[in-house]
């Protein structure tokens, strides 16, 4: 990139881009200061013009607080991060000035008039020196990138402190007041007495809060709902049945006949109406009874829910509030093709299943027979995310992940050989797998899971017969490795155990989901970790 392009990219004045000579000298604290600039015509621009101050910036390192090896509170971490950002800004200015000086040297060496007075040997020497300087500038760019990464790590650490403060404010800390046994060491006693930050997720699973119903929920894949079929579901402890009306649009009505409470899904769909198998009463997608064989037609109607279809999925709105105008998009990213859409009914509460899906640190211990076979156990697992988001990426695994309210988890996984995932990210991988998990709350102890798997490679796999059965078999294998643990968690939670007793750093996304859900159930106007808050 030449100087003009570099300056243009950084919105610098065009006068700075001319092939000109910079007269520079060392400034205070090792910095570089621009003294004067001579244009091609030889005119001198004053030092104190509108743009010379771009480089006349003091090196902030002398004022940077010395906090290495110290534990920082939120304010101290913020101060360190502020100085880090100032230093990165100062360093970028110096790098830009270096590039400009090198550009001048290139112009000077390659100037046809200058070549007439230089021997070939001199030109080779000048070019070799210039090459070395360019290599040094290249190394400096890498150093600057490392500094930026360090600054981001410090910001992530500061965010951890803020999250810890949120947890401490939210939860009560209880210390064991019982007298310690003589066999307990002093160190163990310190651990026992140390206040803990926790989320209180314990006791019998309660009925779902009505405020959780005021969202659009995906309940089925479009491909599974033919014109003459029905899909019975449970949602928030209530039975519903989905079918298509005369216009082909889906509808959702209560799965209970108004006559004698017979399950409607045991019947059939006739001309866009669902027929009860007991006495033949027929209902439209808005719940109105339009046919009552063998008796006079009465004004009878069963409850229905707002229902729509988007991007290959059927959605319902089970809440009492007016439905939102827009639905979230759940399509895979551009370049991916859908290979499998699977539905499973699972014997666990949907929040516990979401906790599991939002946690990747368990993979090398739990999924040793499936996708994590051969994974090494890293010394540190981190989930890096913006301060106000419900999405981010895992380090050191090449996996991006997002919780999308109210019950969806989206993830993109960089495909790599088992045991060689550390140090990579999704951008470094050439092939990827994209997953969508929808955890529909069926009842207190049951979840309807919708799983969609997409790939950005191997499109021919979609046309291989019986491939969908192989994908389902693999998905069930992975899920069964999780279920035995999550079911055990649920049993202990019912008996009083707290399944979020001691969150740690890699639990960040799961903790944010729980804090978001608590805010919804408490009716807060502004929800945490959302763009609107």
> What composes the largest sheet?
7 strands, antiparallel
Shape: elongated
Name the helicity range.
Answer: 25-40%
Main-sheet strand order equals 15-21-20-19-18-17-16
Radius of gyration (Å): 32 Å
The fraction of residues assigned to DSSP E strands is 15-25%
Distinctive features:
4-stranded antiparallel β-sheet, 21% strand, disordered N terminus, 7-stranded antiparallel β-sheet, alpha+beta, iron-sulfur, metal-binding, 533 residues, 2 iron, 2 sulfur cluster binding
Overview of this structure, please?
Its main location: plastid. This is Rieske domain-containing protein. One of its GO terms (molecular function) is chlorophyllide a oxygenase activity. It is a single chain. It contains nine helices and 21 strands. The protein has 533 residues and is an alpha+beta fold. The strands form five sheets. Strands 15-21-20-19-18-17-16 form a seven-stranded antiparallel sheet. Helix 2 (74-110) packs antiparallel against helix 4 and helix 6 (350-357) runs antiparallel to helix 9 (508-521). The longest helix has 51 residues, at 120-170. Residues 1-51, 170-196 and 418-423 have low confidence and may be disordered.
What's this, in brief?
GO terms for molecular function: 2 iron, 2 sulfur cluster binding; chlorophyllide a oxygenase activity; metal ion binding. The protein is built from 9 helices and 21 strands. With 533 residues, it is an alpha+beta fold.
């Amino acid at each position: 990139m030449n100087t003009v392009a570099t300056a243009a990219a950084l919105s610098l004045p065009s006068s700075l881009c001319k092939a000109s000579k910079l007269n520079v000298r060392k400034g205070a604290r090792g910095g570089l200061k621009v003294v004067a600039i001579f244009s091609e015509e030889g005119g001198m621009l004053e030092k104190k013009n509108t743009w010379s101050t771009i480089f006349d910036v003091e090196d902030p390192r002398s004022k940077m607080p010395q906090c290495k090896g110290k534990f920082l509170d939120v304010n101290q971490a913020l101060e360190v991060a502020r100085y880090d950002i100032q230093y990165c800004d100062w360093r970028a200015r110096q790098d830009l000035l270096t590039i400009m000086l090198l550009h001048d040297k290139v112009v000077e060496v390659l100037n046809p008039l200058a070549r007439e007075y230089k021997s070939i040997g001199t030109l080779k020497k000048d070019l070799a020196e210039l090459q070395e300087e360019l290599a040094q500038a290249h190394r400096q760019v890498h150093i600057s990138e490392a500094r930026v990464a360090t600054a981001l790590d410090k910001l992530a650490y500061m965010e951890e402190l803020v999250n810890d403060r949120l947890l401490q404010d939210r939860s009560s800390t209880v210390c064991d007041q019982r007298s310690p046994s003589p066999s307990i060491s002093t160190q163990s006693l310190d651990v026992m007495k140390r206040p803990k930050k926790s989320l209180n997720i314990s006791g019998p699973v309660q009925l779902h809060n009505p405020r959780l119903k005021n969202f659009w929920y995906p309940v089925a894949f479009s491909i599974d709902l033919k014109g003459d079929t029905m899909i019975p579901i449970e949602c928030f402890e209530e039975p519903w049945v989905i079918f298509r009306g005369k216009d082909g649009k889906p509808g959702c009505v209560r799965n209970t006949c108004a006559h004698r409470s017979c399950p409607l899904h045991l019947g059939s769909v006739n001309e866009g109406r669902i027929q009860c198998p007991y006495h033949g009463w027929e209902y439209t997608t808005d719940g109105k009874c339009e046919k009552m064989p063998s008796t006079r037609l009465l004004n009878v109607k069963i409850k229905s829910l707002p229902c729509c279809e988007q991007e290959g999925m059927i959605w319902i709105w089970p809440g009492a509030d007016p439905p939102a105008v827009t639905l979230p998009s759940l399509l895979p990213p551009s370049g991916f093709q859908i290979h499998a859409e699977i539905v499973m009914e699972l014997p666990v509460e949907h929040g516990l299943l979401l906790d599991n899906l939002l946690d990747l640190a368990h993979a090398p211990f739990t999924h040793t027979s499936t996708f994590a076979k051969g994974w090494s156990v890293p010394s540190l697992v981190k989930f890096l995310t913006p301060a106000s988001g419900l999405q981010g990426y895992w380090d050191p695994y090449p996996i991006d992940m997002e919780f999308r309210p109210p019950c969806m988890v989206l993830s993109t996984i960089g495909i790599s050989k088992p045991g060689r995932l550390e140090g990579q990210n999704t951008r470094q991988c050439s092939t990827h797998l994209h997953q969508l998990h929808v955890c529909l709350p069926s009842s207190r102890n049951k979840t309807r899971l919708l799983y969609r798997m997409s790939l950005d490679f191997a499109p021919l796999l979609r046309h291989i017969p019986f491939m969908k059965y192989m994908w389902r078999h693999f998905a069930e294998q992975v899920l069964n490795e999780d279920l035995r643990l999550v079911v055990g968690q649920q049993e202990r939670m019912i008996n009083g155990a707290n399944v979020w007793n001691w969150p740690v750093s890699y639990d960040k996304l799961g903790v944010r989901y729980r804090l978001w859900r608590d805010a919804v159930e408490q009716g807060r106007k502004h929800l945490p970790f959302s763009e609107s808050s």
